[in-house]
Specification:
504 residues; alpha/beta; Nitrilase/N-carbamoyl-D-aminoacid amidohydrolase; globular
Length: 504
């Protein structure tokens, strides 16, 4: 057996490789086997500790962009930024530790059952991470396959969690082959996705053809604005006015009768609809031209605000706009958890701690479509987007301000989650980001139009919504629930077997 320092170094190095799968460019080919070292370590001494080291290295690699964000907008020294990011990574690494600790018991049982129980354990822990402590379903394993042909269409059946199952399955299969020095387990584990992915891709092509036939080649015009406005470290009135004028000018250039003009999150900051006549008059002028504007603004509620998306319609200019209020807020960005302990972190983001989550869902009606909104962080929660679709959303729109994270991998990680939401629910998705990535995503998750990070522009597209529900939309909980139940059965079965084997 290798020495302890070697084992921990091996765990850290393999964790870095896993974190790199979520960089600006996804390592689609490597992601098929990059978790194999973690699975191999299940047979080593102290697998829980090795799993935690693997997770710490993976999350520090995948979330490195938090450090410069804390430096720039929190005015934190580099060492403190690294420590705070390390605390988050250390917490997230506990899920890797749990996988290794519980997985080592399942690994020792041997047999082909490990091909099912270990991926199920991983998915169960991802599901737990989605909800525990407010939830952080960032960089799900399935996202590593965002560019693997067929993976996104397959998500319409099994969701991102199901794709995560397949990602882990391939690595488990290769690890079993390494341990047994036989090729059959690896072949079996790789053949399964190689059969499913082409079937999903072919189904997606048939769906595309049907949607084109039903649309008759027509769609409704949309304009997605990316003004490329960086967040201000300190308030500067001239910069604010210049940035706001850029948004208005882009809007007026894009405003055509019947078109939907989508502003990204924070595009009008610090102006608020209904409280700043300048903003109200400019929006009214756009509506008078015949376009509908979807924009972001704060909405007062008691002593706080909702983070809201307003739809100001050209078809009903005299009516008040329909409003969607954000339900899932960003911790330390829009609210401060445990304020008695973390109250000093108000300064990490402007207006942090002043927002309140909404307690109801509203669809925004536009030109025969029902828009399901996700503001920034909300789009990373699979079940919440599926809930919008079950309530009747025919079209998905997400607006975001990823300028906080600069030209890092963070905007691309966020964008991959949005692509999966489109594919899971078989809905076109419009994404407007203030500094990128803005995109028109087709119902199969493919990108039809895109503006990269720190570029200015307008995406002009035609879109037609969809009303059919995918298997995932109907039951987004099915795959993670089955994974959790099978994990519990396997773990308790192992414990019961061990007790019987040691009883007199």
């Amino acid at each position: 057996m290798k020495s302890a320092p070697f084992r921990y170094l091996f765990a850290a190095a393999s964790g870095v490789l896993w974190g790199l799968c979520f960089g600006r460019v996804s390592l689609s080919l490597a992601s098929w086997i990059v978790l194999t070292p973690l699975v191999v370590m299940l047979a080593w001494p102290r697998p829980g500790r090795l799993g935690w080291v693997h997770g710490l290295a993976a999350w520090m690699t995948g979330l490195y962009w938090i450090v410069p964000t804390l430096q720039t907008f929190g005015q934190m020294p580099l060492p403190l930024g690294v420590v705070l990011t390390g605390l988050l990574a250390a917490y997230l690494a506990l899920y890797h530790a749990a996988f290794a600790w519980l997985g080592s018991r399942l690994w020792r049982r041997g047999g082909l059952a490990r091909l099912l129980t270990l991926p199920a354990l991983w998915v169960a822990l991802e599901w737990l991470r989605t909800y525990l402590g407010g939830g952080f379903p960032w960089n799900l394993a399935g996202y590593a396959w965002v560019d693997v042909p067929g993976a996104l269409p397959l998500a319409a059946w099994i969701g991102a969690y199901g794709v995560s199952f397949l990602v882990v399955l391939t690595s488990v299969a290769v690890a079993m082959s390494v341990a047994a020095r036989r090729w059959e387990p690896a072949a079996l584990g790789i053949v399964v996705p190689l059969l499913l992915l082409p079937l999903a891709a072919r189904w997606s092509l048939r769906q595309d053809a049907r949607e084109v036939r039903e649309a008759g080649g027509f769609g409704k015009p949309v304009r997605l604005l990316q003004p490329n406005i960086p967040n201000l470290v300190a308030f500067d009135r001239l910069a604010v006015e210049r940035n706001y004028r850029k948004v208005v000018d882009l809007s007026l250039q894009s405003c055509q009768p019947g078109a939907l003009v989508v502003w990204p999150e924070s595009a009008a900051w610090p102006f608020q609809y209904g409280r700043d006549p300048w903003l109200d008059q400019d929006l009214a002028a756009m509506v008078d031209r015949g376009c509908t504007v979807l924009f972001n603004s704060g909405s007062p509620v008691g002593n706080a605000f909702y983070n809201s998306a307003f739809l100001l319609s050209a078809s009903q200019p005299s009516q008040p706009p329909v409003r969607y209020d954000k339900r899932h807020l960003v911790p330390f960005g829009e609210y401060v958890p445990f304020r008695g302990v973390f109250g000093w972190m108000d300064k990490l983001a402007r207006n942090a701690g002043e927002f309140r989550p909404a307690d109801r869902t509203v669809l925004l009606p536009w030109n025969g479509e029902e828009i399901g909104m996700s503001i920034c962080y909300e789009v990373v929660f699979p079940s919440e987007v599926a809930d919008l679709v079950r309530q009747g959303a025919t079209l998905l729109v997400t607006i975001t301000n990823d300028a906080w994270y600069g030209d890092t991998s963070a905007p691309w990680q966020h964008f991959r989650a949005a692509r999966f939401r489109a594919a899971e629910n078989r809905r076109p998705l419009l994404r407007a980001a203030i500094t990128g990535v803005s995109a028109f995503v087709a119902p199969d998750g493919s990108v039809r139009s895109e503006i990269g990070v720190f570029r200015e522009g307008v995406i002009r597209a035609r879109v037609l919504g969809e009303r059919r529900l995918t298997p995932f939309s109907r039951a987004p909980w099915l795959v993670p629930l089955l994974s959790t139940l099978s994990t519990l059965i396997a773990v308790f079965g192992y414990t019961w077997t061990r007790k019987r084997g040691t009883s007199p």
